[in-house]
Amino acid sequence: xxxxxxxxxxxxxxxxxxxxxxxxxxxxxxxxxxxxxxxxxxxxxxxxxxxxxxxxxxxxxxxxxxxxxxxxxxxxxxxxxxxxxxxxxxxxxxxxxxxxxxxxxxxxxxxxxxxxxxxxxxxxxxxxxxxxxxxxxxxxxxxxxxxxxxxxxxxxxxxxxxxxxxxxxxxxxxxxxxxxxxxxxxxxxxxxxxxxxxxxxxxxxxxxxxxxxxxxxxxxxxxxxxxxxxxxxxxxxxxxxxxxxxxxxxxxxxxxxxxxxxxxxxxxxxxxxxxxxxxxxxxxxxxxxxxxxxxxxxxx
Length: 300
Known about the structure:
Blueprint: E1 3-7, H1 14-25, E2 27-31, H2 50-55, E3 58-59, H3 72-88, E4 92-96, H4 100-107, H5 118-125, H6 129-139, H7 141-146, H8 152-165, E5 183-189, H9 192-208, H10 211-219, H11 235-242, H12 248-272, E6 277-280, H13 286-299
Parallel strand pairs: 1-4, 1-5, 2-3, 2-4, 5-6
């Protein structure tokens, strides 16, 4: 049995399409979103609506404290367990998300490398990103070629692996443990200007639903400076506003601009990945796109 994996840029409508598909095939949804795992943060993490979650069971949402860490290794382990549980109920898992490292943990697999070392990471976190990237170019040119110079998370992870093993992270590439089930990977895309319009509309909706209130709650806590949730688009810009660095409207505009840039990075990443069946949703409804995925699912 192949498992559908629906990917694509933020705001393209993946959650709605996944629910429609799950209803068509008798499925349950597994989220592959690096921020939706955190509970209590509904608005800024753009989780599926309560209406969508009532229609179809959703998994790997709202189960990690927002002050904690969660990574692709834990996601892969939790995803495998959840797939087994869903199959055991006679249902079909439908995985959906746009977090690139989580998607790669499924499509490419994970190498059996060392776990995170808080002391090493704390030391690396003290150094600026450009300095870390220059270090990566020295110790692992192959990794530096594939990792974006401003992707601080992946740069630190690559240097951490080198520090702990004495081997570059690129040494482990090609030795990944594959996902136990075959995947049907479907990418959803649309006209760029329409995607940007949807992003702007989503940001406005997030503000109307209380994004600033969530940011205030986070701002009042003493989280570690490298806590992942602090680097989430939406909260990060509002923190600058709350520190008095920029007006609220400037923060709002920056959230839109940064979300558009994130969508472009997602598309660039996914376009490099082999084996993805791309669907341009155009003017079609989520149901119509789901029906096309169903045809692919039944024919392959």
